[in-house]
């Protein structure tokens, strides 16, 4: 699927399920790691993880697009567009969107990586889902000392 086809698909889903046109950009972004998609508050664009399509197929993709469109339409309408907002939950239910921004990985919904162990010598990075004591481990590549860094809490997905 190309960016252009994705754009068309998002426009179709927007009109059919939300009754409102999607007037911004939809595109694949191969740099997305843990999420299937995200909505960008500043530009109002929607980005989809291309690996998600490969791993979960097109039906799941539609669920992700609906999820992102819930953020999109509610944000533009100045209503509750965050996951915790009632508006968001209701709209998501109505259109049958994915409950979560699907994780990409082994085909299951997973915890996102919240921590990173960084090697002070070679710069190697090890992503971790749980907090770890960096003093108890060494870099697997060069045996250097590690430091723990908390990753930014996920942006609005
Ligand atoms: Zn190292
Ligand atoms: Zn989301």
Account of the protein in words:
The protein is an alpha+beta fold and 157 residues long. The chain has two domains: 3-95, Zincin-like (2-Layer Sandwich); 115-150. Helix content is 34%, strand content 15%. It has a three-stranded mixed β-sheet with strand order 1-3-2. A three-stranded antiparallel β-sheet has the order 5-4-6, with no helix packed on it. α1 crosses α2 and α2 (50-76) crosses α3 (86-95). The longest helix is centred in the middle third of the chain and has 27 residues, at 50-76. The protein starts with a helix and ends in a 7-residue tail after the last strand. Bound molecules: zinc ion (2 copies). One zinc ion binds at residues 119, 121-122, 124, 139, 141-142, 144.
